[in-house]
Amino acid sequence: MSTDFLFHEDLEEIAPFVHDLIQWEEERQARKLIFIPSESYAPKAVRKALGSRFQNIYAEGYPPSSMVRDPEERLHDVPWQLAYYRRYADRRFYKGVDYVNLVESLAQRRCAQAFAHGDFFRAGTSPTAQSSTFLGSVTKLSLMALTLKQNA
Q: Do 85 and 67 contact (CB within 8 A), yes or no?
């Protein structure tokens, strides 16, 4: 049973022309090298993440500082992270971002690993990068960073 309360059919059945347009645009982007960040071709894994339930959440602000500083192994301890978050909260205006905090903390860490290295860390700067789930280009970059292989 579908969990979608409004549409139970696939897009191809509901709006075939829109489905075709999406397919054509996908082919166009795959054929060209586009240097506009908001239009750059994102890998399938990133597109799947962008189409996930996280797109429904408005997460103004940043994850808790303690979560951002946690090593990645600690981020994977979801029960511990949720218990800590529910006890101490975070700096965000809107609540209900329990899992968004984990995604953004992980994205910040992966961006830092991919782009901030060498003298950057020796200068004493924190190994994090800013991300935000409500900005299209930044979200795409964050999700692309999430799909980077660790230590690549």
A: yes
